[in-house]
């Protein structure tokens, strides 16, 4: 198994990033929050290190990349629940941080879990039942993405939302709704989660 990947960021798309490792470009499927931290490094030669999880299928090998080990651990635990595959697990981490997930599962908060596209009430109840004793309590710590420069965050959040299936109109509305106040430093990962919550409530 490939535990992590380290190398210059060669490219970032709406759903993945390519890191160059030994002259080979490895594509990692990532959440929009993780991609937002990598976008400023494209073409600069800056090295990134991402914990990874490999999903093996009969016809494919897919690498998923994560912001930190905590996110990777949650991704792998989520897939032990019935009906949760890698894509749904990644969607859950795009909407909720690992601690938010732990809090929702520990508190049997079905409403929070159903904010994730693809999870209905029954699915949320099943996840709570199967993972309540495995995810554990919120840790209270989280690596925070470095603040981005003033306006580029808008494009990054908008592209992340569209990559998850929202229309350009909905994405623009959500971006305006979560825009930070004057003088505040935008945290793209946090703004993206706030935008997803806003869209899920609409």
Account of the protein in words:
- This protein has helices at 32-38, 69-78, 86-95, 98-106, 110-113, 121-135, 152-163, 168-178, 188-201, and strands at 4-12, 16-21, 24-29, 47-57, 60-65.
- Residues 142-150 have low confidence and may be disordered.
- A 5-stranded mixed beta barrel has the order 1-2-3-5-4.
- 46% of the residues lie in helices and 19% in strands.
- It has 9 helices and 5 strands, in the order βββαββαααααααα.
- It folds into 3 domains: 4-65, OB fold (Dihydrolipoamide Acetyltransferase, E2P) (Beta Barrel), CATH 2.40.50; 69-135, DNA polymerase, domain 1, CATH 1.10.150.20; 152-201, Helicase, Ruva Protein, domain 3 (Orthogonal Bundle), CATH 1.10.8.
- A hairpin with a 2-residue loop joins strand 4 (47-57) and strand 5 (60-65).
- The protein is globular and about 45 Å long.
Describe the secondary structure blueprint for this structure.
Elements: E1 4-12, E2 16-21, E3 24-29, H1 32-38, E4 47-57, E5 60-65, H2 69-78, H3 86-95, H4 98-106, H5 110-113, H6 121-135, H7 152-163, H8 168-178, H9 188-201
Parallel strand pairs: 3-5
Antiparallel strand pairs: 1-2, 1-4, 2-3, 4-5
Helix pairs in contact: 1-7, 1-9, 2-3, 4-6, 7-8, 7-9, 8-9
């Amino acid at each position: 198994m490939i535990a992590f990947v380290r190398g210059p960021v060669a490219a970032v798309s709406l759903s993945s990033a390519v890191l160059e490792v030994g002259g080979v470009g490895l594509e990692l499927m990532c959440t929009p929050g993780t991609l937002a931290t990598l976008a400023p490094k494209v073409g600069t030669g800056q090295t990134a290190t991402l914990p990874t999880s490999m999903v093996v299928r009969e016809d494919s090998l897919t690498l998923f990349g994560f912001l930190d080990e905590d996110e990777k651990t949650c991704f792998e635990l989520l897939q032990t629940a019935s009906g949760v595959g890698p894509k749904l697990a990644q969607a859950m981490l795009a909407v909720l941080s690992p601690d938010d997930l732990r809090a929702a599962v520990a508190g049997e908060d079905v409403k929070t879990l159903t904010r994730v596209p693809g999870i209905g009430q029954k699915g949320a109840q099943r996840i709570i039942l199967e993972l309540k004793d495995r995810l554990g309590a919120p840790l209270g710590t989280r690596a925070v993405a470095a603040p981005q420069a003033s306006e580029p965050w808008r494009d990054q959040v908008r592209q992340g939302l569209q990559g998850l299936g929202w229309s350009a109109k909905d994405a623009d509305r959500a971006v305006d709704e979560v825009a930070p106040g004057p003088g505040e430093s935008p945290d793209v990962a946090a703004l993206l989660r706030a935008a997803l919550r806003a869209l899920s409530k609409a």
